[in-house]
Specification:
- The protein has an eight-stranded parallel barrel, surrounded by six helices. It has a three-stranded antiparallel sheet with strand order 13-14-15, with helices on one face. A three-stranded antiparallel sheet has the order 16-17-18.
- The protein has 19 helices and 18 strands.
- The chain is of the alpha/beta class.
- The radius of gyration is 27 Å and the shape is globular.
- About 40% of the residues lie in helices and about 20% in strands.
């Protein structure tokens, strides 16, 4: 039985940015792109070039490797052509391969919000699509308020669909902008639209204001649309968008959908889902939802009693899918049934191979669980996990030891009488038996410690020259000024690789220093592996030519 191709469109970096309290930096966007590519979505909508400096810089070059890089913007303004509209041209001239333009499918919104007429809006829609398509862009049209508009004036809403397709749009996306449409209504309205447009050119963009965004997405797919738009962890304005982290495993694992539809999500990628979801929350500096479907810490947790007893006989008695299929783990309070498989997978990412019955694996598993109870979270700090694993397994080289460090913050007046803050850090390290001391000033104590720590590492200095700190996040795990603090540091080097490390302490400086220390250690582990490979290549005898 042949399956229809279903396309997954992520709008975390654009529509998800509308979430209260969420503000993506350029570095955030680049890192989140990596998570989305790891997951395997088809389209990544990165924002609105020209709307703000971050988005403009983000679209200066292509940011994706496999997903279609997509820019978002408005159709042309009334009174000018698309060729002379700065907003349209900003999208056309960006590095994005696809452009998604928003148009209003509700006549009331056209008249109220735009002060225009429906005829003018349709003309602008067609002109915008033709202009972008002629420039070689794949064109998508988000029909805002489509379902409310259809209920008010179905003729105009449908004319938006046909106008966009006739002008050359690849996709027309039906948006439930207010999030109040019921699944039964979605089925009925999409069924009508399919009489005017083929399903392989239609998408769905549901919001979650009634808690039914995923249900509405599934209803639209069942009826015939072949693109679904959503966000990581359901991020979005008000109550959020359709949660791709819930939707994707439903489409891939549930036979009703898996037997009918093909996606770009492989079983191997799906096993990274929990990690990606939690790493994304870590980047946003917020706690993952414990009861989130599929990926929550409690999604496969069962207390002692009859449920746990049945689980031990057959896991399917209280689990609708195997937890490892989405990278999560089973938690049965009366016994530790899970953990080893996930751990072996994580170790393999760092070229550490252990057998499942290796006693060191039990020790590492116990150490990880103990540290996570203290506040560590290795889903968003894979480099720290690599350092911890090698330490527990006894394979971590002793690069350098920190014997002492001090950070001082002083507020004073300079020679001009201006009030300034000066931060200085001192770090003493022992490298290869030699004691080295470095002093550095910085923009705050963490920056000063970072500068001092990397200033002189003796024989290792040359190996960390291209290392730089690109992001720093702090999260308070308990209340009060004496609370336990988690620090997440992101670093990168000249190869373009990025990694995150974590520190936890009641002292924010200690937590920060721990994360900095592990970042440098991970970098040295990387260079150690490269040097070892070079030595092996040099030592390997040359092959004699034959023939």
């Amino acid at each position: 039985m042949s399956r229809d191709r279903l396309y997954l469109f992520d709008t975390t970096l654009r529509d998800g940015a509308q979430t209260a309290g969420v503000e993506f930096s350029l570095e955030d966007k680049i890192a989140i792109i990596d998570l989305l590519e790891e997951l395997g979505v088809d389209y990544i909508e990165g924002g609105y070039p020209g709307a703000n400096p971050v988005d403009t810089a983000f679209f200066e070059k292509k940011r994706t490797k496999s997903a279609t890089f997509t820019a978002f913007g408005m159709t042309k303004r009334a009174g000018r052509s698309a060729a002379n509209d700065p907003g349209v041209q900003g999208l056309v001239n960006s590095a994005a391969a696809a452009t998604c333009f928003v148009a209003k499918a509700w006549d009331y919104q056209v008249e109220l919000a735009l002060g225009s007429t429906t005829d003018e809006h349709l003309e602008g829609l067609a002109d915008t699509v033709r202009t972008a398509a002629s420039a070689g862009k794949e064109v998508l049209i988000d029909l805002e308020h489509f379902f409310d508009g259809f209920k008010a004036n179905p003729e105009y809403a449908l004319s938006c669909v046909t106008t966009a397709l006739e002008a050359g749009a690849r996709w027309v996306v039906l948006c439930d902008t207010n999030g109040g449409t019921m699944p039964s209504e979605v089925r009925t309205i999409v069924g009508t639209v399919l009489k005017f447009a083929p399903g392989e050119k239609l998408g769905i963009h549901p919001h979650d204001d009634t808690g039914q965004a995923v249900a509405n997405a599934l209803a639209a797919v069942e009826t015939g649309v072949r693109q679904v738009q959503g966000t990581l962890n359901g991020l979005g304005e008000r109550c959020g968008n359709a949660n791709l982290v819930t939707l994707i495993p439903t489409l891939v694992l549930k036979p009703y959908y898996a037997e009918r539809f093909e996606t770009g999500i492989t079983p191997e990628k799906l096993e990274r889902l929990t990690h990606i979801s939690r790493a994304f929350d870590d980047r946003l500096n917020r706690a993952p939802a414990r009861q989130a479907p599929y990926v929550g810490a409690a999604a496969f947790a069962t207390k002692a009693g009859i449920h746990a007893s049945a689980l031990l006989k057959d896991f399917s008695t209280y689990e609708h899918v195997p937890p490892e299929s989405v990278g999560n783990e089973r938690a049965i309070m009366v016994s530790q049934q899970a953990g080893k498989s996930n751990l072996l997978t994580a170790l393999a990412r760092h070229d550490i191979v252990l057998e499942k019955d290796d006693p060191r694996l039990e020790k590492l598993l116990a150490t990880v669980k103990e540290r996570e109870a203290q506040g560590y979270s290795y889903d968003g700090a894979d480099a720290s996990f690599a350092v911890l694993a090698r330490s527990v397994l006894g394979t971590l080289p002793s690069f350098f030891d920190v014997e002492h460090y001090r950070a001082m913050v002083e507020r004073r007046h300079n020679a001009q009488g201006e009030e300034i803050t000066v931060t200085e850090a001192v770090v003493k390290v022992r490298v290869d038996g030699q004691l080295l001391m470095s002093v550095a000033e910085g923009n705050g104590p963490v920056n000063a410690l970072d500068q001092a720590l990397r200033k002189d590492l003796g024989i290792y200095s040359a190996r960390i020259e291209d290392l730089e700190l690109v992001d720093f996040k702090v999260r308070i795990l308990d209340g009060g000024t004496g609370a336990v603090t988690r620090v997440l540091v992101e670093s990168r080097d000249g190869t373009g690789e990025r990694w995150s490390t974590i520190g936890v302490s009641s002292n924010i400086i200690d937590a920060s220093f721990e994360a900095l220390y592990e970042s440098i250690t991970y970098k040295l582990l990387k260079t150690e592996a490269v040097q070892s490979s070079s030595v092996l290549a040099t030592a390997r005898p040359a092959q004699k030519a034959t023939g």
